Amino acid sequence: DTGVSQDPRHKITKRGQNVTFRCDPISEHNRLYWYRQTLGQGPEFLTYFQNEAQLEKSRLLSDRFSAERPKGSFSTLEIQRTEQGDSAMYLCASSLGTSGTSTDTQYFGPGTRLTVL
Amino acid sequence: GQSLEQPSEVTAVEGAIVQINCTYQTSGFYGLSWYQQHDGGAPTFLSYNALDGLEETGRFSSFLSRSDSYGYLLLQELQMKDSASYFCAVRVSNAGKSTFGDGTTLTVKP
């Protein structure tokens, strides 16, 4: 257990429905990242936050995806009008937020596995 | 674009040494990380190299050559519990954003 929690752990939904996932990072961590991982591939960057500011969003992310971190603590990732191609593991990670070449280790949560039928 | 290449699968026996290579081509480079992921689990951090050379942490060591855009993870005294996927990841921005490889599945046999 890294201290990063995600809810729910599993979500099955029908195509066209909206889903929302929650991530609670390690409390003193300033940065929060969302990744998507499909079978046989590495985590793919979606977006990240420095405190409450969303600093970057992947160009691969369509307008159906939105993320928030309203008070700089927990974050939510919403997918609207889900498609079968959205089926994946959605991982959240957090880090202290050190700059430059220092480690700034990312601690991952257990993920939310989304299945779109 | 960003690309990281690592072998898809490696097999070794208990007690042996295995090396997992990673070559990268990225638009920015701040450091190379390695993560371990067991089936159904989350990636867990193993090591990080920002400068050239070897970093040792117990049975695991990681090496970086920035001029060759190359690194490797060395696992010694392999144990069955080391069977997992191993990902290299390049920190591509000052803000910590990382790009991951597709992972190497390590199978340790008795």
Q: Count of helices of chain B? A: 0
Stretches of chain B where pLDDT is under 50 for at least 5 consecutive residues are none
Oligomer: heterodimer
Class from secondary-structure proportions of chain A:
mainly beta
Provide mean pLDDT of chain B, rounded. 94
Largest interface: A-B, 32 and 27 residues
Q: Tally the helices of chain A.
A: 0
Please tally the β strands of chain A and state the result: 11
**First and last CA, distance of chain B:** 41 Å
Radius of gyration of chain B: 13 Å
Helix content range of chain B: under 10%
Secondary structure topology:
The complex is a heterodimer of chains A (117) and B (110).
Chain A: E1 5-7, E2 10-13, E3 19-24, E4 31-37, E5 44-50, E6 53-57, E7 65-68, E8 75-79, E9 88-95, E10 107-108, E11 112-116
Parallel strand pairs in A: 2-11
Antiparallel strand pairs in A: 1-3, 3-8, 4-5, 4-9, 5-6, 7-8, 9-10, 9-11
Chain B: E1 3-5, E2 9-13, E3 18-25, E4 31-37, E5 44-49, E6 53-57, E7 60-65, E8 70-75, E9 84-91, E10 98-100, E11 104-109
Parallel strand pairs in B: 2-11
Antiparallel strand pairs in B: 1-3, 3-8, 4-5, 4-9, 6-7, 7-8, 9-10, 9-11
Keywords:
heterodimer, A: 117 residues, mainly beta, seven-stranded mixed β-sheet, 11 strands, 48% strand, B: 110 residues, six-stranded mixed β-sheet, globular
Textual characterization of the structure:
The complex is a heterodimer of chains A (117) and B (110). Chain A is an all-beta fold and 117 residues long. Chain A is globular. The N and C termini of chain A lie far apart (30 Å). Chain B has 110 residues and is mostly beta strands. Chain B starts with a strand and ends with a strand. In chain B, 40% of the residues are buried. In chain B, strands 2, 4, 5, 9, 10 and 11 form a 6-stranded mixed sheet that branches. Chain B has a 5-stranded antiparallel sheet with strand order 1-3-8-7-6, with no helix packed on it. In chain B, a hairpin with a 2-residue loop joins β6 and β7. The radius of gyration of chain B is 13 Å and the shape is globular. Chains A and B meet through β4, β5 and β10 of A and β4, β5, β9 and β10 of B.
